[in-house]
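TA notes. Do not distribute before section.
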Amino acid sequence: MRPFELTTAPTIESAFSADAAFLAGGTTLVDLMKLNVLTPRHVVDINDLPLRGIDTGDGLRFGALERMADIAAHPGVYPAISRALLLSASQQLRNMASIGGNLMQRTRCTYFRDVAMPCNRREPGSGCSAITGVNRMHAILGTSDACVATHASDVAVALVALDAEVVLAGADGTRTVKLTDFYRLPGETPEVEHDLRPGELITEVRVPRLDWAANSTYVKVRDRQSYEFALASAAVALDVRDSRIVDARVAAGGVATVPWRLTAVEEALRGKPVTEESFEQAAALAVEGARPLAHNAFKASLLKRTIVRALLELTEGSRR
């Protein structure tokens, strides 16, 4: 780890600095600093800022410094969000990690984290080692010739499915951005991962009210039962009436460079009967445009099965 200056921000306004890294839980930042993947000269501790609170009165609102474990345990949080949080990391890390930090976490691509290897996200123009390297954990959707790294967050997948927004604050004021627009596809500039401007920070996460989001879930498939990143995951919410799907929200994780909203799958589900056949037909659309690599072609069929599993879980009572 290289030397750096650590300061504490007493107010939100005092935190704004174009060349600073923000420290909340530190569960990602500190790891990457130890590896010299990130080498900020100035780190600002923001834990004293008034960015806490959980409100479930009309939709959901989480202060950016709320810890993942506290949100997961809070009554009124939609099941897809709570379950995504509980399937993330370990209990110890969930107690430390903030919701804002989780949404900002960097990819777990091993080439990104190894400073001896070329990586366009870490060093633009150096190349993407994963494309011809070991790429079993990498993305098949939203990729480019410059980057195939998967997005790591579980809860971001559930939040994207439920139309969440983030509130961003900086020296130029406050703005609100839909989470689907916040994350950027790699294209030719994979080092630009999100819409956060220099000096800005996430202050709040908002999820619009959706009464039928109580019927939601998050299914995560991984190599081991705990403390592992997704090979494929699905966040699904369904409005089911008289054994027919009225509306749906579906997003996928573990398979794409950003949390991947599956609008084609949603459209295919609307108006359909609650049957496994309907689910399989809709899930087949999830992999349109997929670009499998040498070691991760299995993710296409795995994603379809994961979506079907989530749909079956949510409609068990309706199919009896």
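Switch to the second chain here.
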Amino acid sequence: MKYETVIGLEVHAQLKTRSKIFCSCSTEFGKEPNENTCPVCLGMPGVLPVLNRKVVEYAMKACLATHCEIQPVNQFARKNYFYPDLPKGYQVSQFDLPIGLRGHLTIQTPDGPKRIGLTRIHMEEDAGKSIHGENLGDPDKSYVDYNRTGVPLIEIVSEPELRSAEDAREYLVALKSVLQYADVSDCNMEEGSFRCDANVSLRPVGQQEFGTRVELKNINSFKFVQKAIEYEVERQTKILDQGDQVVQETRLYDANRGITFSMRSKEEAHDYRYFPEPDLVPVACDEDWIESIRHELPEMPEEKRRRFVEQYGLPEYDAGVLTTSRALADYFEACVALFNQPKLVSNWIMGELLRLLNQDDRDIGDCPVTPEKLATMLKLIDAGTISGKIAKAVFEEMYRTGKEPAAIIEEKGLTQISDEGALGQIVDDIIANSPEQVQQFKDGRDKVLGYFIGQAMKASKGQANPGLLNKLFKEKLGQA
């Protein structure tokens, strides 16, 4: 390998406040264009911003959840640039005095856990949204929707310690999980409340100095972040192999073509002419306030993962999957409280449940199978009422219709056959019609028992009790 990939990520997460950062306008998504606006967020002359206290508290909570040091004094600044979606001609952000510094996140890699440093977390207001005419049937015009203007954001900046596109994806998964656990952001990428910019550069292996970095802007899915970085690494590798220099710039990702393309040359921080926001006093975060926020934090993903291993005896992999989201972890624990076989519950959630949810692109919060229904079905398997194979069909029907498992079993006549007399006749018929396999069994080829059980399950339409079949075949073959 000639080059080492160096990646740093900048993530903007919208905070879950009901009103904007400096005014009382609603942050509700999907309203009519420019409905959620007022003179303050539109930057009219003579208006003054008032800081939303909840924004600061959510930002502090995010800092604590990511092990950042909350700064006792932090300050807003004006970031000056001109763009149609920025009504004031500047963005109120934080620069040299952010709210959080020196944090870290732990990601899972094929080589084990890896700690990624966080440079800073700072608060800022969002800009509006430009809508160009080709999307509105008039290619000669552009429009601006200011509903997002003033929506509160935190920007989380990682250290350039990610070394692959896979690492970057894992980092985003971990960060999203932490913010959702802390309940400070819904991290809905489709609605723009979790957005990622990636800074990507290459350097010869062994070189300490960073290469020229390229910023990949506003990528809206974890999959596309990974693909955009992979493409950019390949593009920069070709440039360096040709003896040319990588140009510092901002690029966008075209998901349809799977390529990045140039948007603009990259501005440096000093181009923004930052200076302290004169209309807002510095924010003081004293120890009492910080501690009160710390006490509001729930159990975080790393802690919950460790507890799932220790308390429920789950493998590390299972615990990692189940704690990816707080809602999924809560679902698992609710089910185990009703049916105390943690590994079996884990298998069903990670297998059938997540398969169907992923297939339909649904979240666990939209799952029609409640923990109570899943636990009831598992109890029916445990009692021998249905087999594991039949249970999969029952579960899918529960998922599609929301019906109770008992009702589905009764409607479809799926009760497991555990009557020794009824199964004995099936076993006798199969043995009588399989002389070759009977001889193989007598010759010591025990694996042929699977053939007999498979034939019996087929004859009983999957309703035979597998344990009882196993017992009957062994008894009758031993006598044959």
